[in-house]
Amino acid sequence: MSAASLVTDLVRAFRAEGRIVIVGASLAGLRAAEALRERGFRGPLTLIGAEPHLPYDRPPLSKQVLVGRVRADHTELPRMRAVDADWRLGVAATGLDRVNRQVRLATGDTVPYDRLLIATGVRARPWPDPAEGALQGVFTLRTRDDAARLQAALRKGPKRVLVVGSGFVGSEIASVCCALGLPVTVTERGGGPLTGPLGGVIADITARMQRDAGVDLRTGVSVHALDGDADGRVRGARLSDGTTVEADVVVASLGSIRNVEWLAGARLATGFWGVGCDAGCRAFDINGVVTDNIFVAGDVVRQPHVLYEYQFISMEHWDNAVCGARVAANNMLSLETERRPHLPLPSYWSAQFGVNIKGVGVCSFADEIVFTQGSPGDYRFAAAYGHRGRTVGAVTFDHGKWLPYYAAMIERSAPFPPPPPGYDRAADSVPVPARFPDPRVPTEIPDVVLTGHDPTSRCAEFH
């Protein structure tokens, strides 16, 4: 056996042993643990999660759980295989000591690692005024417990529900209220629902869709304050246009916050958009140097994408968590030549107001949009997004069978406008400005963000 072969075998043997710690016991953390065992990792494996629950599925929380078809505690994720792990649930990570390779916990304990996977995800952005946010009847929706509490409140039949923010989650909550026969008001400081992820042209359509369903939709306004009664229950809201809304249930759907605070002082590339890493899920330090033993997966990731001019991309999608976890697990155990990139083509879906919305690519990267199939007036269509003459995204309303067609065009950087489909062509197929808002405006941040350079971030150390 040659010396090179002996070294390779020793490295492989080490990577199959050692200690791996995964911080974040949700979808990405579980799938990474399964992939590690599948690829032959035999060493100690620890999963740390701030929530007390075993990993569960989040998409049903704003759909089936709220409407009452599925109980919140019946959303546990299926196991693909046994992981033989030490589960540390209900305890948050509070710090990372990279020199001594230890994760610090809220209990005061430390957990040593040889390789670390950061999969801490995001949390719901709370109501900005803590006193108002503490009123009974004010909710956010991110966790299983959030969904259980909100579902119980809706089941009691409130006089009116106020949803603040009309992204995907906020719109789905409004849709559930309509399905339950509950009066619902939606406030949106932007031009319409889904403006952030899909642009103003689609927002005009979704606004009409919501109003047709009976939603009291208020656009171009924000909530100045929530009012409560003497018993500490929410009773209404004062809006920026001087009007008021009476409501005994308020849902703040204001976007997400990346869970990176526990990494303060660890000298990693962390910030508002998450943890920076390369296409192989290896974390960057504050000066952009790639680390050897720290990896990142899931909603907390911020990494470059070849299809989008190598800009850093952050996405809060189910498939990104699953695929990223598998890539991270592979690369944690592999030699350099066996590593592979995580370059997902973002895809997402939403069910609201009787319409199945599916999308692919980074629509908010686009300048233009063109309707390619179907009829926007009937809420049944496909539309493609373009940037500098290239197709970069697509969305369908009750037309999802065509999504692979558009995904293939995005993957090969097909020209924009795209080639016309075989049938069901849209009557008006002229590209128009997509009308995306400034993504820095609160509640208009899309689920997939090309973050670029953040000039407000000054954490690097230049010598």
From TrEMBL:
Its cofactor is FAD. It comes from the Bacteria. SUPFAM superfamilies: FAD/NAD(P)-binding domain, FAD/NAD-linked reductases, dimerisation (C-terminal) domain. Residues 19-321 form the FAD/NAD(P)-binding domain. GO terms for molecular function: oxidoreductase activity, acting on NAD(P)H. Residues 348-417 form the Reductase C-terminal domain. Pfam families: Pyr_redox_2 (PF07992), Reductase_C (PF14759). This is FAD-dependent oxidoreductase. It comes from Nocardia speluncae.
